[in-house]
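Supplementary Methods, section 5.1.

A reviewer requested that the exact input to the structure prediction be made available. We therefore reproduce it here, unchanged from the version used in the analyses.
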Amino acid sequence: MAEFAIAPAPVPTVPVEGEAAAFPVRRILCVGQNYAAHRAEMGGDDRAPPFFFTKPADAVVPPGRDPAYPSRTQNLHHEIELVVAIGKAGADVPVDAALDLVFGYAVGVDLTRRDLQAAAKGAGKPWDSAKGFDDSAPISAIRRWAAAPPAGRIRLSVNGQSRQNATLADMIWNIPEIVSEASKLWKLAPGDLIFTGTPEGVGPLVPGDRVEGEIEGVGQLTFEVA
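The structure derived from this sequence is encoded token-by-token as follows.
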């Protein structure tokens, strides 16, 4: 086996609730506009299927660490999301078999440079820099899961004031449909994380803001914008 020309990058990991072992992150897939009310607030068509975008694996911010306010933006937004952790490989997986790939779930926040996203959209250009920057994916510990997908409330507050409050049942595409569709676009593999979209109420953050997110039955996520 050839030696590395430079030191290999460390593998990003997320803790598994109640376990010493950690979940290695391979990549992050994200669903856009998967709640009808959020799609409306972003100017989308609620009849269209959700689309996917990506973040690099090292965008994850595990619990206990605060994300830094990113450069080149004046309008950083929060988007709380249910995160699906993939534990088995699969491609072209039918909906009725999609849950077999799920290792567990976590609470995540998709941080977004909204001004860069709007400018890129207006120019018809890709908006990777609006979504895939450093520290753009804070996440809670992953909870192992073997039952039906979570169906409770999803909510986020900033400095004690409620910003987002909905239920997972409000999603346009449910978890099996999301996993199945993702497996048709990529070969899913252990270590993949899927952020499943955010409800309405997204809004700005500034340095020093305290963010508290919760998904019933899954967990909680708290951080300050550094």
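The longest helix spans residues 175-185. These observations are discussed further in the main text.
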